[in-house]
Amino acid sequence: MQRNLLCAATIACVMLSAISCKKDDTATLPTASLSATSQTISESAGTASITVTLPSTQSTDVTIKATLGGTAILNGDYQLSTDTTLIIAAGSTSATLTFEIFDDEVVESDKTINVSFSSTNASLTNSTATITITDNDTDQSSSGLVSELTWDAGTLVDMDLYLANNVTISDDAVTDYTLLSGSTNNTGFESLLLSNDLDDADYYVLVYFAEGAREVTYTLTNRADGNTVYEDTYNFTADEEGGAYFYGPFTKSGTAYTIGKAANSVLWDVKLVEPHWHKGKIAK
Ligand SMILES: [Ca+2]
Ligand SMILES: [Ca+2]
Ligand SMILES: [Ca+2]
């Protein structure tokens, strides 16, 4: 009986102690706040940032994790300049999450970066923030056929667009071509104009996989007179780096464009990868 009473008293003490400790832990969590929960910037802004601030310094590091979402494409529309795990070091009161915003030539809708913050050793006055990126590009489709190249989120890749004519295809391989122009952003999406001013002829758009180390799902959108006329995706593997895909022909007649050799023909007639690429006239 005495033993049972002792056990019951011990259990009660442990429970009280646990409750007491829990209360103390909660009470000591510092409260962090965000510098901006909603901001709107232009695509040309260069950078954007969100700072997490504590009201006073702490004796230990405070860790805040940021999780990204939204319609903006990581490493397409923007890239991270800092890690998504923010550490407010002991003795400091703030840490900043910074983004580089890519200023491409693609006409697109406004996009958002949604950031959710969480922490196991701080409480947050606001746990979400949104950065809205407004587009700054002008539709050129009245001047010709516009091809735009975008891709999925993932590690950074560099893909470029080129325009070629005098393309010679033999046994499903490109043996010669003349390069006319190119759009070569190192970061961000690409846009190319097949101008109404060019001679009537057959043209090809080249998607060149310049640099990257992952499979890429890309979308090539061609627009004439503001309408989408072709759109598709393809998985571009890392071992195809340095290769190009020829899409076409785009047969130009005045301001009208016919895509593919005939109705229902496949848009990409030729898939060109190294070493064939170096038979061409591009010096990268
Ligand atoms: Ca732009
Ligand atoms: Ca744009
Ligand atoms: Ca590029």
UniProtKB/TrEMBL annotation:
<feature type="signal peptide">
    <location>
        <begin position="1"/>
        <end position="23"/>
    </location>
</feature>
<protein>
    <recommendedName>
        <fullName>Calx-beta domain-containing protein</fullName>
    </recommendedName>
</protein>
<keyword id="KW-0106">Calcium</keyword>
<dbReference type="InterPro" id="IPR038081">
    <property type="entry name" value="CalX-like_sf"/>
</dbReference>
<dbReference type="GO" id="GO:0030001">
    <property type="term" value="P:metal ion transport"/>
</dbReference>
<keyword id="KW-0813">Transport</keyword>
<dbReference type="GO" id="GO:0007154">
    <property type="term" value="P:cell communication"/>
</dbReference>
<dbReference type="InterPro" id="IPR051171">
    <property type="entry name" value="CaCA"/>
</dbReference>
<dbReference type="GO" id="GO:0016020">
    <property type="term" value="C:membrane"/>
</dbReference>
<keyword id="KW-0406">Ion transport</keyword>
<keyword id="KW-0732">Signal</keyword>
<dbReference type="InterPro" id="IPR003644">
    <property type="entry name" value="Calx_beta"/>
</dbReference>
<keyword id="KW-0677">Repeat</keyword>
<dbReference type="Pfam" id="PF03160">
    <property type="entry name" value="Calx-beta"/>
</dbReference>
<feature type="domain" description="Calx-beta">
    <location>
        <begin position="30"/>
        <end position="137"/>
    </location>
</feature>
